[in-house]
Write a structure and sequence with these properties.
- The chain is an alpha+beta fold.
- It has two domains: 219 residues, PmbA/TldD fold, CATH 3.30.2290; 215 residues, no CATH class.
- 23% of the residues lie in helices and 37% in strands.
- The strands form three sheets. A six-stranded antiparallel beta sheet has the order 3-2-1-4-5-6. Strands 7-12-13-14-17 form a five-stranded mixed barrel.
- A hairpin with a 2-residue loop joins β1 and β2.
- α3 packs parallel to α4.
- The longest helix is centred in the first third of the chain and has 17 residues.
- It is globular, with a radius of gyration of 24 Å.
- The N and C termini lie far apart (55 Å).
Length: 441
């Protein structure tokens, strides 16, 4: 799909002009276009084929700090004019909010780097189907006990985002997002287990090969056969990298502006205090070339910059957009819309060495449920995984619950491995926790 960046910027400028003419004292406009397709094969047959092509524009206006917002997927002049009028009409009925408004002009991005986010995948639908079939075939061929499949999916997506506001900022960039995934089921007697593997990247060249991914999916599934229950105990726990990012994600949620100004966080007033094990630092790196969460500016046009979120366990920054920053009497950290490549420091231990360091304990490979309370820090989730003795996997376990408190869990991280998982906005290796409560039979 060809994108006309200059044309889209011009359209954003036109809508901003309409907002000013309608009486808005400030306004901002976000416009996006995207296209792509996904194909899923199941049991070596095509199950779904979906194409998408979409566009949307949202406008937010402020009339003396009264806010109104409206959106449309119709890019015709009449529809855009009506959308602006609706936003202004809503603003006139809204209550005044002293913290409402655009980002501070001096924080807006004036110059930013090329981040290498645009890598269209020139793959036809038949070729994508062949790739999915190849992936699923590799998974089904791992073991005769793999009896069913939830499918293999190839997804191709490209898009462009343009943002502008009445402070004179108009910026835009295109990006791509491709993925490959596979999930299969294995059966032994009355027991049935499932597992999956996936790969995601800006460029198709950085995806795991279809055969390699399929085999990994099948091997992960078969390894779970023979699962047992555990008796209730307190034990060290290892979170593999693919799950460890969730631990740090809960902490990020607790230090995000919305949670803080609503006083709905266990980390209230935690700036410059220790929130993690003192061996851990976390740095936001928004300008990593090709990074899945890289961005030259945030959702309000504020320039993104590399900065420390945590230094040696001490919280150095909150995660703020303009509104939450004003509510807290602070300044935006360039995180309107989310985080950009949080990188967790790590030691020299490989995943296997981390298991050796744990000795005896639990390796968690799946988490279920939403039992995380960021107001109190209480953590309780259903889980499955493997029991480990002397650093060696002994047998799979299921139907257990792991519990603790996030404050204690994060303060008592023993080690972070060097097996970094780059498939999300938080880049971390596997994590060894000193102990958690495991509730079982």
């Amino acid at each position: 799909m060809e994108f006309d960046l200059d044309g889209l910027k011009s359209r954003v400028g036109d809508v901003l002009a309409k907002a000013a003419a309608c009486g808005a004292t400030e306004a901002e406009v976000s416009l996006s276009e995207g296209s792509g397709f996904s194909v899923t094969t199941r049991m070596q047959d095509v199950e779904t084929l979906e194409h998408h092509r979409d566009q949307g524009l949202s406008v937010t206006v402020y009339i003396n700090q009264q806010k109104g917002a409206a959106s449309t997927s119709d890019m015709g002049d009449a529809a855009l004019a009506e959308t602006v009028e609706k936003a202004c009409s809503l603003a006139r009925y809204a209550a005044k909010d002293d913290c409402a408004g655009l980002a501070d002009p001096q924080l807006l991005a004036t110059d930013y780097p090329e981040l290498d986010l645009w890598h269209p995948w020139d793959i036809s639908v038949p070729a994508a189907i062949d790739l999915a079939l190849e992936c699923e075939s590799a998974a089904l061929g791992v073991d005769s006990r793999i009896s069913n499949s939830e499918g293999a999916t190839v997804s191709v997506a490209e898009g462009i985002q343009v943002y502008g506001n009445s402070h004179g900022f108009v910026g835009g960039y295109a990006d791509t997002h491709h993925s490959l995934s596979c999930s299969v089921l294995a059966k032994a007697g009355d027991e049935m287990q499932r597992d999956y593997e996936y790969s995601v990247a800006r460029s198709s060249e950085n995806l795991m090969s279809a055969i390699e991914l399929g085999k990994a999916s099948g091997e992960r599934t078969v390894a779970r056969l023979g699962s047992r229950k555990l008796s209730t105990r307190t034990t060290p726990v290892v979170f593999p990298a693919r799950l460890a990012r969730g631990l740090f994600g809960h902490m990020v949620g607790a230090v995000s502006g919305g949670s803080l100004y609503r006083k709905a966080s266990y980390l209230l007033d935690s700036l410059d205090t220790q929130v993690l094990s003192d061996q851990i630092s976390i740095v936001e790196q928004p300008h990593i070339r090709g990074g899945l969460s890289s961005a030259p500016y945030d959702g309000e046009g504020v320039a993104t910059t590399e900065h420390a979120l945590v230094e040696n366990g001490v919280l150095k920054s909150y995660v703020l957009g303009s509104y939450s920053a004003r509510k807290l009497g602070m300044q935006s950290t360039g995180n309107a819309g989310g985080i950009h490549n949080l990188t967790v420091s790590h030691g020299d231990s490989s995943f296997d060495e981390l298991l050796q360091q744990m000795g005896t304990g639990l390796l968690v490979t799946e988490l279920m449920g939403q039992g995380v309370n960021t107001v109190t820090g209480d953590y309780s989730r259903g889980a499955a995984g493997f029991w480990v003795e002397n650093g060696v996997l002994q047998y799979p376990v299921h139907e257990i619950t792991i519990a603790g408190n996030l404050r204690d869990m994060l303060m008592n991280i023993v080690s972070v491995g060097n097996d970094i998982d780059y498939r999300g906005g938080i880049r971390t290796g596997s994590v060894l926790l000193e102990e958690m409560t495991v509730a079982g039979s």
